[in-house]
Amino acid sequence: MTAQSHSLTRATNKSRAIRRTYAGVVPAEINRGTPGHIPVAIIGAGPVGLAMAGELASRGVSSVILERAHTSSDGSRAICWSKRTLEILDRLGVADRMYAAGVTWSVGRVYAGNTTTPLYSFDLAPMKAQKFPAFINLAQYHVEEYLVDQLTSQSEIDLRWQNELVALGQGAAGVTLTVQTPAGTYRLVADYVVAADGCRSAVREMLGLHFEGRTFEDHFLIADVRMRAPWEAERRFYFNAPFNEGRTALMHQQPDDLWRLDFQLGADIDREAALQEKNVSAKVEAMLGPSIDFEYEWVSLYTFQCRRMRQFVHDRVLFVGDAAHLVSPFGARGANGGIQDVDNLGWKLAEVLRGDAPRRLLESYDEERGLGADENIGHSTRATDFMTPKTPAARAFQSSVLALAVDFPFARALVNSGRLSTPCTLGDSTLITADTTTFATPGMQPGAVALDAPVHCQGEPSWLLHLLGHDFVCLVFGATVPSALPPRVRLVVVGRDFIDTHGLVAARYDGTPGTVYLIRPDQHIAARWRHPHPEQIRLAWQRGLALT
Amino acid sequence: MITAANIEKPDEFYAALVELHAGLDGQESLRLNAALILLLANQIGEAGVLSEILQVARQVLVSGSGEAEPTAATAQLV
Ligand SMILES: Cc1cc2nc3c(=O)[nH]c(=O)nc-3n(C[C@H](O)[C@H](O)[C@H](O)COP(=O)(O)OP(=O)(O)OC[C@H]3O[C@@H](n4cnc5c(N)ncnc54)[C@H](O)[C@@H]3O)c2cc1C
Q1: Share of chain A above pLDDT 90, in %
Q2: CA–CA dist A395, A403 (Å, integer)
């Protein structure tokens, strides 16, 4: 078999070789000597830091991104990007490119023991007619490259490769950053610092802060292989995989005939032996069967943690993405969760910097994304514990759930191969105003993300979320428009500003005449009413900006 | 959670439950019990009731009923 002639070292280098490299930046401050003062410094140009810069720029806020490396993401990491991530990145202008390049999927098949007939399948996108699908698969470094392409032309963004943050001090005037480059060291003063510097966050260390939570002993092997394979673009998860000594395994399709294979190896393994080519190939060949030729693109081991910082907001330093919280990959909640951090923090930081909202609004980032992090950590911990039972009783329950699931649908609901990322609903947040009347729209309560729907605008097909944009919006159904709106709230009237072509907006929002939704800049629903008084709208808006 | 007697033919059920485990080793019994619990839990369904049952079961274990030293009351019966 041709595959066996490819050494793993070469495979690893192959994946590295296709990453793009960027020229190191020698900033003006180095020669000037005096530190520059900037509104926002973002530490780290991973997917989360890059998206943060784009989100802030779209709101007119300038930022400097400091990135230690001069390439996109090392190795092979995230591949699954959720619908919500695509909706958020659509506002930054990169989602169409991601969608076009990625592999679209929504069906997951779960196998147990038997590798020909699945135990059951699930469809993550039962509600169609939205701009983006449940998930696309695309390598993380491509997403980063698209973001870089999109950002480098924007005057608000100063992306500095090979600029490593080495020291940080908080003072009354702002945060002083010491930055090291191959050309020398310089200083910057920033009003706010967004720490997007990943799981080993240097900023976290510099502030003497820690992660809390669980680390898991289990090792996993990932192999990205290029092959012509006959399988559908679906997520295939195997319990008791006969080709993996009864452990779990996962398979995902990526674009260009690239596939992600993921094998559970267990605790206490010999890491070196696990990465030897003959051992890796034994697993891969057993999984794929004898008729498929493949080439390695990337092979590595990983372990994971389900942990978070207790607080994401530390005075003028705000933590986002892996720097703030970590999950296992099962559920694709890492990068997708980080992009939701950006969605939540971007508008708040812009409002505070403009002086339109008090500093308190930033505290609500901690509250709301703390909720999101707990939800993600909860899902990811429960999935991990189901997959890797740690006591005889847990093993017994897992085996009985899988056995019952063959015949009984109820048990399939208990099979946990990872609960895939969905947007967090912020129902209990202090910024959200609870319902006072009933609505027949499950999942669209205050705090939830507004659902997309196809519409027509000026004769052209469009999407509701696109029209909602990224401001506070009052979405009004019916002919009666509120007589007064709070400042900077954009009025969007169904039928006047767009045509609800298929009636799906009315159906999804239970939009009877007189219905009004107040939607936040991150497209979460702040409040909704039937026939509200303008004063009710003003109060909910004030609450949504932490003005009360 | 129902605490009053609710099982039809309690003695027969109890005997059948014990009989079900006949000839099984520890791990098999554990799996059988797991399947039973899951099937029964699905009949109950309600989150509040299920969570109360979990807590009560754990309390029973902690307080050691069934294996504790005979209390004054049971000692008298003996
Ligand atoms: C095997 C695997 C599979 C995964 N699959 C998925 C998936 O399918 N979907 C998903 O959503 N997530 C997935 N994840 C998680 C995802 O990769 C991470 O959540 C994501 O990379 C986090 O992005 P980030 O921008 O927060 O951090 P990172 O991507 O880690 O970026 C941090 C950046 O900060 C830079 N940096 C660090 N220190 C400094 C410093 N002192 N100065 C300047 N720069 C610095 C680093 O060089 C780096 O570029 C997966 C992870 C793994 C390991």
Answers
A1: 90
A2: 12
Region A316-343 average pLDDT:
97
- How much distance in Å is there from the Cα of A322 to the middle of ligand 1? 6
Condensed to tens digits (0 to 9), the pLDDT of residues A85-97 reads 999 999 999 999 9
The answer to whether the CB of A205 falls within 8 A of the CB of A54 is no
Q: What is A252-286 written as a DSSP string?
A: EEETTTEEEEEEEEESS--HHHHTSHHHHHHHHHH
Domain boundaries, chain A: 14-103+129-209+310-373, 442-544
Q: Determine the Cα–Cα distance for residues B35 and B32; give it in Å rounded to an integer.
A: 5
A397 to chain B, any CB pair closer than 8 A? The answer is yes
ipTM summary value: 0.82
- SS3 string of A383-402? HHHHHCCCCHHHHHHHHHHH
Q: Is the CB of A475 under 6 A from ligand 1?
A: no
Pocket flag, ligand 1, residue A68 (CB < 6 Å): yes
Of A400, A410, A411, the CB nearest to B31: A400
Average pLDDT over residues A190-218: 96
Contacts of B5 (CB under 8 A, 6+ apart): none
As a CATH number, domain A442-544 is 3.40.30.120
**CA pair distance B24, B21, nearest whole angstrom:** 6
Radius of gyration of chain A from its Cα atoms, rounded to whole angstroms: 24
Q: What is the pLDDT of residue B67?
A: 56
- Conformation bin of residue A256: beta by default, left when phi > 0, alpha when psi is -120 to 50: left
Q: List all residues of chain A from 411 to 430 with a beta carbon under 8 Å from chain B.
A: 411, 414
Using a CB–CB cutoff of 8 Å, tell me whether A393 touches chain B: yes
Domains A14-103+129-209+310-373 and A442-544 share a fold: no
- The pTM of the full predicted model, rounded to 2 decimals, is 0.94
Query: What pLDDT is recorded for position A441?
Result: 86
Instruction: List, in order, residues 6 or more apart from A287 with CB less than 8 Å away.
Output: A241, A243, A244, A249, A251, A261, A263
Contact call for A399 and B34, based on CB within 8 A: yes
pLDDT-derived band at A534, boundaries 50, 70, 90: very high
**Between helices A83-91 and A47-58, what is the axis angle to 10°?**
40
Backbone angles phi, psi at A406, to 5 degrees: -60, -45
Inter-chain touch A396–B27, beta carbons under 8 Å: yes
Note the residue count of chain B: 78
What is the CATH architecture assignment of A14-103+129-209+310-373?
3-Layer(bba) Sandwich (3.50)
Residues 6+ apart with CB under 8 A from A88: A51, A55, A339, A340, A342, A343
Whats the size of chain A, residue-wise?
548
Q: Is the pLDDT of residue A365 over 90?
A: yes
Using the Cα atoms of residue A84, residue A87, residue A92 and residue A98 in order, give the sign of their dihedral: positive
- The C-alpha atoms of residue B21 and residue B15 are separated, in whole angstroms, by 10
Amino acid letter, residue A226: R
